[in-house]
Design brief:
Layout (H helix, E strand, L loop, with lengths): L1 E4 L7 H17 L3 E4 L6 H9 L2 E4 L10 E4 L6 H9 L3 E4 L3 H15 L3 E5 L5 H7 L6 E4 L2 H6 L8 E5 L5 H14 L13 H14 L4 E5 L5 H12 L4 E4 L15 E6 L5 H12 L5 E4 L13 H10 L1
Parallel strand pairs: 1-11, 1-12, 2-3, 2-4, 4-5, 6-7, 6-8, 9-10, 9-11
Helix pairs in contact: 1-11, 4-5, 8-9
């Protein structure tokens, strides 16, 4: 048996920034630092930060008045910011800059009188935050069927935006329907699906012709990890999502000669190392990168944190 590792995989710049934001906040303010929702969608990351003194809450109402609170990488609605201000919380915004761009687009389209079609998944924190920028103007579309059924006023201009962690192929299918049904629909100035989501899907597609089965390392609430599984299954390659090596079922590999491994953008690389060690412990010596590619995107820490760190120096 051989194991081929997709590249790129694992942490994206937005996730790296968000995790480092919590660590820096703990060093600056001491324990505890509160985090609204999961900072990123990975259970291992959340448990590690909890062990370091972070407390994860569902609402800013659960944060003691005046305490520091970090907003997750998925972004928040303006109403959440207002609620935090009302409680005099020290807010640190770890929203991924690429998500912030989508929020800005939603706001600008709405201010210009557009009905905004948001392509995304209901209930996802990123979608909730984006919708909160202009709830009266935004309508959610989750599928091709939704796009086919969508009814909009004929005299109102229309634009679309998307969640950053979607399947590239499925999103393009939805956009094709929207363009057919609403020929004048405006698109974002730049594609909303983030570079990391696109790159990881591209890397999996490149890998699929070489493997018999794909393992995707990521948590079950990670949208971009789930999309990697879907990409493989759409190409008729068996694929399984595992939170870590302990969830691998040897029956999946019974007839596999080559196993592909990748990880979602919120999964730390140590979890992939753990999967590689799992195979090596079972006598698999050939574990290698497949067409190695690199990303050089990096984001600065949130401005509120940089200011506070300068003041404390």
């Amino acid at each position: 048996m051989r194991v081929l590792l997709a590249s790129p995989r694992g942490y994206c710049a937005g996730v790296e920034r968000a995790v480092e934001t919590v660590k820096h906040a703990l060093a600056l303010y001491g324990e505890p630092v509160y985090v609204r929702k999961q900072i990123v969608h990975n259970s291992h990351v959340v448990r590690e930060l909890e062990a370091g003194g972070a407390i994860f809450v569902d609402s800013v109402d659960d944060v003691p008045e005046g305490a520091p609170v970090v907003f997750s990488a998925h972004g928040v609605a303006p109403a959440v910011r207002a609620a935090a201000d009302a409680r005099h919380l020290t807010t640190i915004d770890a929203t991924c800059p690429l998500v912030t761009k989508v929020h800005t687009q939603a706001r600008r389209f709405a201010e210009r009188g557009y009905r905004v079609v948001l392509i995304g998944h209901a209930g996802h924190e990123e979608v909730e935050g984006t919708t909160g920028e202009a709830p009266e103007a935004i309508v959610l579309v989750e599928s091709v069927a939704d796009a086919e059924r969508l009814e909009l006023p004929a005299d109102v201009p229309v634009a679309y935006i998307t969640q950053t962690t979607l399947s590239v192929d499925e999103t393009n299918e939805i956009i094709d329907v929207l363009r057919r049904r609403f020929p004048r629909i405006e698109r974002p100035a730049k594609e909303d699906i983030c570079y990391a989501t696109s790159n990881r899907q591209w890397a999996v597609k490149e890998l699929l012709g070489e493997v018999d089965v794909l393992l995707v390392v990521g948590s079950r609430n990670s949208s971009n990890s789930l999309r990697l599984v879907e990409v493989a299954r759409a190409a008729h390659v068996p694929a399984h999502l595992v939170d870590d090596a302990s969830e691998i079922d040897e029956r999946w590999l019974a007839h596999a000669r080559v196993v592909g491994v990748t990880s979602g953008a919120s999964a730390p690389d140590r979890l992939v190392h753990g999967v590689c060690d799992w195979f090596r412990a079972r006598g698999v010596a050939d574990v290698r990168e497949f067409r190695s590619a690199f990303e050089d995107v990096a984001f600065r820490l949130p401005v509120e944190l940089r200011r506070s760190e300068r003041s404390a120096a």
